[in-house]
Specification:
Layout lengths: L1 H78 L3 H17 L1
Amino acid sequence: MATRKKKKNETTAYVKAVLIFICAVGVSLVIFLLGVQSSIEKRSQKTIVTNVSRQSEHVKSILDIHYGYLNGIAKEIEFKPGPRLNSIEIDSQKLAIFFY
């Protein structure tokens, strides 16, 4: 009987040690995952800010190019009045009639 009691006490102590170990691993894992999540959020926000600023600069440069192109066309039309301007006005009127 003494050996059964001794084995029972050893088994109980072993189970307690395993449960404590599993709890310690679980707590460590939760702390690690929270730290990783925080790091990923910060890095993602930094990456998004960088990408948005790059895209904004790219869109501004594209708009500047298009504005320059359209501004050149407007100057071409503005400085050459005459039959060409009249044909543009006629075409505009045809389009207006077509859409209405």
